[in-house]
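Bumping my old thread because nobody answered last time. Still need a sequence for this structure:
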C-alpha cells in the first residue's frame, strides 16, 4: 500500500532524529474480537512502511495470554454479514440508539457473557485475567511508559487491570499520544477517567451495515487521504457520554446505521488531552478493512480494496498526528 498521501498530510513539527516509539496494547479481559491478532500484524507492517514510528506489542511479552484461536464463525462475522450474535447478524446483536449517544439502556459491554469469555484461552477466565495483569504491569507503569511516545489500544476490551490508571492518564496529559480503535471505547467502563479521556463510551451496535462515512475534516492528517464520502461495511458503534463540542469530528455518519434516522453519528474524532493528543476511530471490526489483499475462504470480501486502503491511510495519519510527527487542527467543536 502506498502511504505517500497520508505521510505528506499535515505539517511536520520538526526533523526527527529517530522514529517515535508506539506501544500497542492488544489485551482483552472481556470479549476478544477475532480481528485483534490479525490487525496487530498489520500495524507492525504499517509502522515498517511509514518509517517514522516503531511498534512494541504487548503480544510479544512472555506473560501475554495465549488466547484461543478465533472460531470459524467469529472470523466469518468479522468478514461478512456474519451469523447471529456478536459476529454481526441481526438477532442478538448489541444495540443502542439515538443521535450519537444511545437513548436506550446500554447493551453489551465488558460484562456481557458470550463466546470468547470462559474456558481455557478465553478472554474472560481468571487465568487470562492474571496474565493480562502481569503483562500490563510490564509496560504501563509511569516508569515503563518513559520508554514510549504514545500508546495504541488496539481493539482492547473489558476492565483491563491497569497497574496505575491515574499515572497512565497523567502521562498522556504530559504530552504523549493515545490511539484507539473499535472496542477501545468498550474498555474500562468502571474506571474513573479513561473513557472521558477517549471522548466517548461504547453504548451498543446493531447488525453490520454498509453506510456512507463522511469526511468531516479533509485537512487533518487522519483524513487528508479519505474521500469526501466512502461506503463502508462495518459493525458501526453507537456512543453515550459523547459531546461533539468537546471533540474534533473526523469521520461521521449522517444517519443511524440501522434505523436510518437522521443525525450526527460519530465514527472517528480527535481531541487534546492536556498537552497530549487523543485519536480514536471506531472502525476496525472487519478483517477486510485491515488488508486490501485479504480474501475469505470463499475468495470474497465485502469491502473493496480501496476501502481498506482508505482505512489504513486514516489510521496511519491518526497515529502520526497523535505521536506529534505531524501537526493538524484538532479544535473541539469543529
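Sorry it took so long. Here it is:
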Amino acid at each position: 500500500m502506498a502511504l505517500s498521501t497520508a505521510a505528506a498530510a499535515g505539517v511536520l513539527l520538526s526533523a526527527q532524529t529517530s522514529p517515535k516509539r508506539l506501544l500497542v496494547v492488544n489485551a482483552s479481559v472481556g470479549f476478544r474480537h477475532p480481528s485483534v491478532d490479525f490487525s496487530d500484524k498489520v500495524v507492525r507492517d504499517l509502522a515498517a512502511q511509514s518509517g517514522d514510528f516503531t511498534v512494541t506489542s504487548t503480544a510479544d511479552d512472555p506473560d501475554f495470554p495465549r488466547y484461543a484461536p478465533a472460531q470459524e464463525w467469529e472470523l466469518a462475522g468479522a468478514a461478512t454479514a456474519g451469523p447471529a450474535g456478536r459476529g454481526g447478524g441481526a438477532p442478538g446483536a448489541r444495540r443502542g440508539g439515538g443521535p450519537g449517544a444511545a437513548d436506550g439502556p446500554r447493551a453489551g459491554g465488558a460484562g456481557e457473557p458470550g463466546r470468547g469469555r470462559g474456558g481455557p484461552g478465553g478472554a474472560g477466565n481468571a487465568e487470562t485475567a492474571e496474565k493480562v495483569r502481569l503483562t500490563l504491569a510490564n509496560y504501563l507503569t509511569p516508569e515503563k511508559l518513559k520508554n514510549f511516545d504514545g500508546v495504541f489500544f488496539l481493539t482492547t476490551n473489558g476492565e483491563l487491570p491497569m497497574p496505575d490508571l491515574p499515572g497512565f492518564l497523567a502521562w498522556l496529559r504530559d504530552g504523549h499520544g493515545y490511539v484507539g480503535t473499535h472496542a477501545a471505547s468498550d474498555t474500562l467502563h468502571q474506571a474513573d477517567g479513561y473513557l472521558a479521556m477517549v471522548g466517548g463510551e461504547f453504548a451498543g451496535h446493531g447488525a453490520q451495515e454498509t453506510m456512507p462515512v463522511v469526511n468531516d475534516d479533509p485537512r487533518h492528517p487522519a483524513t487528508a487521504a479519505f474521500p469526501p464520502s466512502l461506503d463502508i461495511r462495518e459493525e458501526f458503534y453507537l456512543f453515550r457520554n459523547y459531546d461533539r463540542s468537546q471533540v474534533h469530528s473526523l469521520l461521521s455518519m449522517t444517519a443511524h446505521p440501522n434505523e436510518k434516522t437522521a443525525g450526527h453519528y460519530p465514527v472517528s474524532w480527535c481531541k487534546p488531552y492536556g498537552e497530549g493528543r487523543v485519536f480514536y476511530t471506531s472502525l476496525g471490526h472487519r478483517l477486510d478493512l485491515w488488508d486490501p489483499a485479504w480474501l475469505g475462504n470463499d475468495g470474497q470480501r465485502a469491502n473493496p480494496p480501496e476501502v481498506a486502503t482508505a482505512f489504513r491511510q486514516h489510521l496511519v495519519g491518526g497515529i502520526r498526528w497523535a505521536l506529534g510527527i505531524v501537526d493538524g487542527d484538532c479544535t473541539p467543536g469543529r
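The chain has a mean pLDDT of 85. Let me know if any region looks off to you.
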